[in-house]
């Protein structure tokens, strides 16, 4: 669902996948290898929203802002299910946890990790490599190389997902029973705790 608004037509690179049940409106620019999941709303009706290459906006996320603002989600920013980004800028290769809310004019530095369900107040600036949690959110420590390695591998899965969706996602009628030889999906990514144990 791609909508023009007051003469602004979203720009979506051909390598990026916007799910048909997502809504992208107005002054939005989406770079290469981005994924926008079902239920996501990216509203560039009052200002500009730029998703640089490799960004993912997962299911049921909202990206919006106050009138006249311009925001950038930098390369490989990773926005977890249900998060709200309202007028905030996200640094390169950061991870925003599920159901997090980030308010206007907040700045999340590169390679930051924001824990699930955190609330980041307006105008707060977090430096790069901060591990941020809570309500209101605060820095609890620096992000380790191991955590960034884990995060980067997870984001690469989402950067591959657009190609996989173009290749195999299609609307179908459901089966009425489970097939006898239904294949098991492989385990190709670990939780952070499993990753640490390797």
TrEMBL record:
Protein name: Transferase hexapeptide repeat family protein
Alphabetical list of InterPro entries matching this protein: Hexapep, Transf_Hexapept/Carb_Anhydrase, Trimer_LpxA-like_sf
GO molecular function, one term: transferase activity
Transmembrane segments: none
Isomerase listed as a keyword: no
UniProt entry keywords in alphabetical sequence: Transferase
A Pfam family the protein falls into: Hexapep
Signal peptide as annotated in the record: none
